[in-house]
Amino acid sequence: MTKLLIVEDSATQAAELTLLLESRGFEVTVATDGISGLTRCRNGSFDAVLSDVVMPGMDGYQLCRQLKTDKQTSGVPVILLTSLNEPLDIVRGLECGADNFITKPYEPDYLLDRVQRLLENKLLRQHKPTMGVEVVVRGERYIIRSEKEQMVDLLISTFEEVLRSRQREYEAKLCEETVRESHRFLKSALDALPNKICIVDGSMTIVSANERWCGFAQSVAPNWPKSGVGANYFAFWQKLFSAGEELTDKVREGIDAVLRGHSKGFSHEYNTRIAGKWAWFSLTATRFEERGTYLLAIEHEDITAKKQLEQQFLHSQKMEAIGLLAGGVAHDFNNLLLVIGGYTDLLRKSLPDDDARVPDVDEIGAAVKAAAALTQQLLAFSRQQRLTPRVLNLNGVVSDLRKMMHRLIGEDIQYDMELAQDLGMVNADSGQVQQILMNLVVNARDAMPKGGRILVSTFNLTVEDSELVAHPEIPKGRYVVLSVNDTGQGMDAATRARIFEPFFTTKEVGKGTGLGLSTVYGITRQSGGHVWVYSEVGRGTTFKIFLPRVDARPTQADAFETLPDLSAQRPATIMIVEDNTAVRDLLKRVLRGAGYQVLVAAGPSEARTYCANKGQKIDLMLTDVVMPEMSGPVLAEELRASRPQMSVVLMSGYSGASLTQREDIVAGAAFLEKPFTATSVLRTVRETLESKLQLTAANL
Questions:
Q1: How does pLDDT run across 391-443, given as a tens digit for each residue?
Q2: 179 inside domain
Q3: I need a surface site. Which of 263, 304, 324, 509 has the fewest CB within 10 A?
Q4: pTM confidence score
Q5: Domain count along the chain
Q6: Whole-number pLDDT of residue 561
Q7: At what angle do helices 304-350 and 358-381 cross, to 10 degrees?
Q8: CATH at 585
Q9: Separation between Cα atoms, residue 602 and residue 608, nearest integer Å
């Protein structure tokens, strides 16, 4: 077995070299310095010596010279291992008789190859005459006495070392350039991210930051370093984000846990003042390793808009809940009004006109009518009403809301009206117009916390080319204008540009939904109209609603109008399906009094029982929409499968989109909106039955 002697004062390098050589089958002995190496070589038989150059006491050159001048060891090849790479080092190696020269760090395969080649050439170089060569390096003369092959071999290995050295330098340069390019790429990627990011080391010193962070830091703290690089992160962060001690301690604790590896990440949301304005931020810290060192990437995201959307969503949910509550209250309230108004109507019809009790009964009827109007106003305010456009005069809508407006705005605000006597007609939903007016008045009230004046006016206006200068966004045409003017705080141009955006508000938190003016805009546009606004800071605001003028007579919509005799013209059977006992009893009395045969069902189950009797004639079903067991439209669809000729009239105090969807299920169904009177019930029933007869006759 080939025996090798390693002379190396570094225990670690000696162990690595031993492991490498033993893995290739060499027998290895280790000496820890030059003197012990010389002794071991003289006392043993080694095929080659691998010696470090720089060692305490006897260095590698001295060891090599001693071995080469001793007849006993002169034939043992010596390989010098060194990190020195100066030309003088190579010359000194040749001078002392070294057989090869390998520069650290070496590649394992290269070292093994040099050892193997040296052992193979060992026999060829025995008994060869030595050469004497004199060389001058840096003014010093050196005599080199070596065999020719030894000298050539050493020069070749030296040349290879130069090539390897240059290759390492090239690779190092290439690696350095790659690293720089990688850093540039990562920096560009970091700068492209929308959030503010800085990198900190284990001592919480900022070592890098992206452009978003730098720009933010410069805008908030212009006197500090642009990016804060080199500064303590917490000191810089406290300055930028106006963080108090409690928040700083919480963030410090979370970041420290991540840095120590106790937590995978840390995230915290906080509210603070930036440049005099409150804003929400999210801080996220993540640990990563870079060349054996742990660093932290700390990301700062402005989540103010997100928080505002969350608040708006929660507020919308609250408004939806209020709307549902209003719809439920309206349903129950309308049932009560229906019973009161119905019996009042029956009582009024039973009294002669000269009866002394007639004025009292009429007052009850008027109160019911006023209560019904109040319910409609409540539904209009919460956008839950059933929308029915009709030809109307805006003066009536404005006048009807006067009392409510006085209660709404308070005593410190003067409320005036200037209504044109010759005002034209518009085709709009009165509830929608009420909501427009209420929203504008409430908006005007909030703009006058110390009191002021609100002027509501109506007038006709024909927009010609000359008017387009004053109202450039209003198309030419004939309009009826509803104007609301206040003497409040007014608005600047930036605010005016956004007032119709959903959820935009200048009011304090909890005092404005941001939906009032967007609702005004939506309703006006849905009605074919336009909104114009003018405002100056400190001089008040004027809103003008332009609705297209129509040449038609107003549609009468009195809820308690009295019509002539509406008794049954021919025999018919009506089935009432209503879960409210009082409403059920009233309808039964009204319909029987008009000459109809009446079947009464307290719910869907009883209605099914009537319909299951094939001998039972049912011409029309009058059903409530919302019932505990099953909705009226679903029941009607089920029963008409077996009785397709049965007409259907739906009645409900509920309104809105959900009711419209239910109505769509029952094709051709009539609708009665609670509260209704005996007259409206009889009229709807007669019209529905007559429509059925006309349709039947047309099909014969």
A1: 999 998 899 888 888 887 888 899 999 999 999 999 988 878 888 898 899 88
A2: no
A3: 509
A4: 0.43
A5: 4
A6: 41
A7: 160
A8: 3.40.50.2300
A9: 11
